[in-house]
Amino acid sequence: MHKLITIACLFLSLAARAESPVSPPADVAEQPVTLFLAGDSTIAEKLASKRPETGWGEYLGVQFLPGKVVVDNRARNGRSTRTFIEEGRWQALIDYIRPGDYVFIQFGHNDGSVQKKDRYTPPADYRRNLERFVADVHARKATPILLTPVARRKFDDGQLLPSHGEYPQIVRAIAREQNVALIDLLARSETILRTAGDDGSKPMFLWLAPGEHPNYPAGLEDNTHFSPIGAQRMAEAVADGLRQLDLPLSAALQPEAGGMPPK
Q: What is the pTM of this model?
């Protein structure tokens, strides 16, 4: 009889354990999501030989609470949607994605460069490429977030001029048609530049006097690429746009903007 009772208790114990939810180990449960960045030089991490040029992607990680998000910056200088695909960079990114990850997608500066045939992408192809990016990310059970291309510093008589043609509208249209999250970085960056004004916006870009920096002994006047100050401002604008989306990723943001300069 004692033996039968012992066996019965064992079966009851096993049944109760099977019905009870098992919590994953702490290191698995708290594993951060990965945020991939796909784009061009306005986002990309820079070589020491290019400093003080800085991509806004270099300041994005510090916009998040520690331990919540890992930023994997796959953006590269000079890339358009077409060349990003042709060089295998997009497929390499997709192969690395896990369910629950996020992908920021911002192209347009090089796609619209008609004079640079090695990177130019006609608008119809640009749309198809972005639609492919969205579909591929969804297929991996991850979340795509489209970004309009960040503004260039292009003033005329105190007025900020557009410089991306129809490409931003294509991004907005895809986001609307396919119900994809959108950060309108063009609109946000234009507001920043207009507020700063023609002269006040120069410190955000690579405006260097001759002899000011050893990488550019002759000086430089670059209205596309950012200084550390400009990169930080744009990363803060991206974070604010993400905050407005109210995605799970948004909850991982710091309550206030900030960031340390990249090394």
A: 0.88
